């Protein structure tokens, strides 16, 4: 019991007040007493605070104990009040207790006062302890409720009969059911088909003392099914086994996992493509080269000319597929130059018209005074051809295909609503068709690798994925506008540059191949490619020496006694000594000797050899007789500056 007690004593007789104090002191109760005789002083003392116990005389002339009881009980109900009075009949005593008094003691029997005070204060302590315990329980309940409602997923607790005992707000929000509805439901109500049987089995495992987890689609009230990761563990609640667990929405995580798998797949494909590119490109050089040479030898009416043309066409398609794989895996050699987009479209006009059927009306609308872009013209052509082929396939019964260019400016509002777009000035090329169009579901997967709506064997699923990669590598943006049954428009935005056109961006001239009489050295470890390259150049009048690797080339240069070697055409990666190391040695002995590097390897494989550095002439494989002859002649004719030549971009097509 608290000591000393702060007692408020309502008593008008000082002698009685003193007697009460002495009685308490004699009973071992230390106290500090405030005596009052009227209502105002009584209320003022209570409002001042710190009162532990009220003693009141029941019969005072102005302010009696019953009035004091009403006031105290109304505003300070936790303070016990004991009546200490000389006149208190049995009926009145009962009334006082019923009105809220703790006890009553007659003045002629003050011996009961000390026990009554101790009992009253004990009840106060017990009540306070009980309130503290109740508050702790409430705090725990509130904490539990807040914790459960703060979970990122759903929480559930149900018994072995499937009756829900508890759940969190997220459960109601995700399921769409009200509290009353959930109270009548069972766990299996949220699953359908085989997953319902699967969850039934998992619940049985939990009640068989096995903690489990499961992935299944949770069905909400509106029929929406969302993939969730569920946990379950058995606990005892009120003497009966129950299952407690949580569920987390993993639909987005699964999408990310699938994307990661696709990235890994692309990495594997990239590594595979990179490893095969060298050998495959060497083979294509030979096929394309000899088919070109055959077509040059055969007359226009020779029946074999058509066969040679089909061989070349197939090799071009193979080269394009290799390029698509390498571009998408970001392993292809990119040679950006300043271009006029209208020129690129004009150069491809004839080829594009060959791609579409006769019942498709194709129109090209070049913009006026369109700006320049910096990109690889071969890849821009690849984008355009892919889009034209897709447009053609979307119009099996004919239609209209329109290719247009224009200057555009993308503002902040456009960038906010189009992912990947950056505000600025662009040159746009659009490809529109009046075909079947696309649904929103198809558009959502449009640029995913290997996604295609075409029949099996009719498409690789790499076309649009390659387009997006090429555009992104050029710092551009691609937009799609389509509705089912209303056609499709692709808009490609290339950043506009304020730079002059580069000579290397101009297309190669058709007609006879350029000739020469200079002495050249071809260094190539692949015999078929070496023989082809040397044969092409010899046919144009050059004297050609042949070497199988860098060491062989150095020996040949050292022993050569004829006219000076003017240019070396060399592979980059070869056994014993590669082309770059050989070139460094040749620079010391023949400072004016020009070097043209060729390679079927990808960027990653040749970049560390320094071949892709500015100022180094480079011709990627597969090349054609025309591209090789023009490249060699251009380097020989340019005595002062060959820096721009490595940037020359060559488009492989059926006309070469």
Description:
This protein is an alpha/beta fold. The chain folds into 5 domains: 5-128, Response regulator (Rossmann fold, 3-Layer(aba) Sandwich); 151-249, 2-Layer Sandwich (Beta-Lactamase); 256-328, Signal transduction histidine kinase, dimerisation/phosphotransfer (DHp) domain (Helix Hairpins, Orthogonal Bundle), CATH 1.10.287.130; 337-505, Heat Shock Protein 90 (2-Layer Sandwich), CATH 3.30.565.10; 519-647, 3-Layer(aba) Sandwich (Rossmann fold). It contains 20 helices and 22 strands. Strands 11, 12, 13, 14, 15, 16 and 17 form a 7-stranded mixed sheet that branches.
Show the helix and strand layout.
Elements: E1 5-10, H1 14-26, E2 31-36, H2 39-48, E3 53-56, H3 65-75, E4 81-85, H4 90-98, E5 103-106, H5 113-150, E6 154-159, E7 164-167, H6 169-175, H7 179-183, H8 193-207, E8 212-219, E9 225-237, E10 240-249, H9 251-297, H10 303-328, E11 337-340, H11 341-355, E12 360-365, E13 372-375, H12 377-393, E14 399-410, H13 412-417, E15 424-433, H14 440-444, H15 463-473, E16 477-482, E17 488-497, E18 519-523, H16 527-539, E19 543-547, H17 550-559, E20 565-571, H18 579-589, E21 594-599, H19 603-607, E22 618-620, H20 625-637
Parallel strand pairs: 1-2, 1-3, 3-4, 4-5, 12-14, 18-19, 18-20, 20-21, 21-22
Antiparallel strand pairs: 6-7, 6-10, 8-9, 9-10, 11-13, 13-17, 14-15, 15-17, 16-17
